[in-house]
Automatic annotation (TrEMBL):
Key words of the record: Isoprene biosynthesis, Nucleotidyltransferase, Transferase
NCBIfam families tied to this protein: ispD
Site feature (Positions MEP for the nucleophilic attack) residues: 160, 213
EC number(s) given by UniProt: 2.7.7.60
UniProt site positions, description: Transition state stabilizer: 24, 31
Broad EC category: transferase
Enzymatic reactions: 2-C-methyl-D-erythritol 4-phosphate + CTP + H(+) = 4-CDP-2-C-methyl-D-erythritol + diphosphate
Protein name listed in UniProt: 2-C-methyl-D-erythritol 4-phosphate cytidylyltransferase
One GO-annotated biological process of the protein: isopentenyl diphosphate biosynthetic process, methylerythritol 4-phosphate pathway
Record function comment: Catalyzes the formation of 4-diphosphocytidyl-2-C-methyl-D-erythritol from CTP and 2-C-methyl-D-erythritol 4-phosphate (MEP).
Pathway: Isoprenoid biosynthesis; isopentenyl diphosphate biosynthesis via DXP pathway; isopentenyl diphosphate from 1-deoxy-D-xylulose 5-phosphate: step 2/6
Gene3D superfamilies per the UniProt record, alphabetical: Spore Coat Polysaccharide Biosynthesis Protein SpsA, Chain A (3.90.550.10)
Amino acid sequence: MTPTPELSGAEVCVIIPAAGSGTRLGEPVPKAFVDVGGRTILERCVDNIPASLGATVVVVVPADLVERASALLTGVRVVAGGAHRSDSVRAGIAAAGHAGILLVHDAARPLTPARVFTDVVAAIRAGHQAVVPAVPVVDTLKQVEPGPAGLERVTRTVDREELRAVQTPQGFTRDALLRAHADDAGIATDDAGLVETCGIDVHLVPGDPLAMKITTPWDLRIVRDMVGGR
C-alpha cells in the first residue's frame, strides 16, 4: 500500500456520537453522563484520545445537553445530534472543519487505549480509505431459528475463524465518510457498514479488550471495577 501524500499531514478529527439515551443501562441519566469513578463516561472517553494525534474533537449530544457537555469538556467542540446515530455522525462531520481524516468513536468505550487510535490513523495515512479496530471472536457461535415451546433451535455452528468483533474508533478519509453518509435517510449502528455498501474496502487493525463497549449494567460494573482498580 502506497502512502497517500495528501493525507501525510492531514488534520485529524475525532467525532464522538453521544446523543443516545442508553436505556438498556438502566441509569437515570443518558449513558454518556453516567459517573464512573468520579468522572462521566464522556469525560473519560475524551481523556483517552492521545494528544499526539493533534486531533480536533467533536462531541455530539442531545440538544438539551449541549450546555452541560460544554461545561464538562475543555477544548472540545460540542454540537447537537439528531434522532438517529447517523444523523449525529453527520452533525459531527459538519462540525469537523477541513480535517482530512475522520475518526468516529463510541462514547461508551471510555477505556480504549491510545495505541488503537494511533494505529487506525497510521493505516489511513498509509493509503487505506476505511480502517477499524477489531478482535477475534472467542465464543462459539450458533445460527438459530424459532423452535417449539418458545425455544430456539440451532441450525448450524458458525465458523468463528473468519469472524471479528469490531470496535471503535473507526477511521475514514473524509471523502469516504462523506460518500457513505450522502443519503440523509441512512440509518446504521456502524459507519464501516455504510462505507461497505459504497463498495469501499474496509481494513482491520488489532483492537483491544479494554475498548469494550458499555451497554448493560454488567458492563458498567466491570468498567467501574477496572477504574477503581487503577
